[in-house]
Specification:
The complex is a heterodimer of chains A (306) and B (329). Chain A is mainly α and 306 residues long. Chain A has helices spanning 2-32, 39-57, 65-92, 100-122, 148-170, 172-182, 184-189, 194-220, 229-242, 247-266, 268-271, 278-292, and strands at residues 127-128, 137-139, 145-147, 222-223. Chain B is mainly alpha-helical and 329 residues long. The chains are: A mainly alpha (306), B mainly alpha (329).
Chain lengths: 306, 329
Amino acid sequence: MNELLQQILNGLSLGAIYALIALGYTMVYGVLRFINFAHGDVFMVGAFSGLYLFRWLKPFFDGGRWLLAALVLLGAMLISATLGVLVEWLAYRPLREKPRLTVLITAIGVSLLLEYSAQLLFGAAPRGFPSLVEGGAIGGIGGLHASNVQVLVFLVSGALLFALRFIVMRTRIGLAMRALSLNPTAAALMGVNISVVISFTFGLGSALAAAGAIFYASLYQAIDPFMGVLPGLKAFVAAVLGGIGSLPGAALGGVILGVVETLVVGYSKELGIPPGYRDAVAFVILILILLFKPSGLLGKNHREKV
Amino acid sequence: MIRSKSVLFLMILLSTVVSYVFTGHPEPSWPIAQIDDYVLNIIVLAGINITLAVSLNLVNGHTGQFSLGHAGFMAVGAYASAWLTQVRGKEFLAALHFCDAAAPVVAFLLATIFGGFVAAIAGFAVGLPSLRLKGDYLAIVTLGFGEIIRVVIQNTDSLGGARGLTGVPIRTTLGWTFAIAACAIYVAASLVKSTYGRGFLAVRDDEIAAEAMGINATKYKVTAFVVGAFFAGLAGALYAHFIGYITPEGFNFLKSVDVVVMVILGGMGSTAGVSVAAVGLTVLNELLRQAEQYRMIAFALLLIVLMILRPQGLIGDPVRWFKARRANR
């Protein structure tokens, strides 16, 4: 029982990271109705900008480790947000009226471009990621352990999710985002500046992905140019699992996926599934959910009309 | 029909002549025959890539579905055929003892066809559930299936696991490669040109309208998918018996993207176009081997710029282009 709880606890911090990335997919899907394939690579850029920010800023902060960590996090979010807006502006905006397949192919192109540019700039070998806060185990209740990185990841992710909810539900730009996802034409007629809202959505989603990247890198302590591919795909699965287009769904899907994945690895012997199948878990979930409940757990059913 | 037949005729002519000159002749006497192994290898790779691109084009181009898991079917074909010739190689050869000296070649051909059929079965199993989805969802699900195939092979010890399978007998010749490429082109071209095959184009152009006209869209989509997977399996088998060494990593997502790039560059839905693109990209890959790290950046930029400026593909339809030129004159 204790072991099960421990595994779930480990899964939660991974799930929180998936949730952060999944929100980017879901928001972009909400306003543009397409899957931003390059999102996982924006995540990767977030991790690398975190690494370099840490190196540059470190000499200026002797004692203030927490301040430094916060600055690295915010800086990486800012850089990724800029990148997200830039990608949308350069690659997706010219294609706004084109078929979705064209945009999808462009997204694959952007994804490859980011990956291989990063490989050219940073090298293909994995790089170590510094620990932003001092590590240490928190002996918890009933013999459960969690490192303080895990706890921090979970808490900050939660705070970011609430901040996002505030932006979407309580601000004017959030209102515009919701209007756009309901009906783009009507939103435009009501005076919503569609281009600004789309740029903002890309920026917001990319910033969350960067936060996820910093947490992911802190947990695994290694980053490489292709690190975004699998977490990106898994986060997409999380978004579909929760119902693409739904913000609480993406968060829920991310947490479920993280926990299930950790459990499958943790109980690989009992389940008879070798731990090597870890990466296949998400895809099996994706296929099952698309077959039996394509609208996802919290998504709305869309009926196709001729 | 005339077009596809002439293309087929050209391909078969080319394959027989070239294979005779390069491999059949015991003592090469022609100057061309002194082409070194390196060039020969590139030509064989080009043939394999033609098969891959044409088969993917059937799904992505003609039927308008977007599959990102082609490398998965290639892996199935490669491993299934290599299982016959390498893992169970001795038993298999012993079973074919009545063929005498031709036994290794017969084994290779049977294994290749076996690889194609296993891949087709995999294509059916993947296609039937996933082809209910459209566009981006289908792309991700096929990608997911491709990854699952890779992960399964990686964790199967009898297939070499992550280390890969070494010692696959090298049997692929230029002649067989181009014979199969010619078959792929012929099947794709005549399937689409036939009365039956108009259904593929109808599904691509408007699925709902096609359904309303009594076309069973699912059936067409699955057919395209299975035929595409079959030829991908053949290509995989050829590849395995050409390189002699296969790893699961060699059939990852990026391999699928390579094929997708060929199809997009050649123009989705143009068999002749994607064949030209497959050859062109194979050669370009070799030329850019020195600048490996810039190669993918160039391809990525090409994809993005192409989609903005010329979504129908760089080459489009060369045959039609030639005809139009002649008509203008």
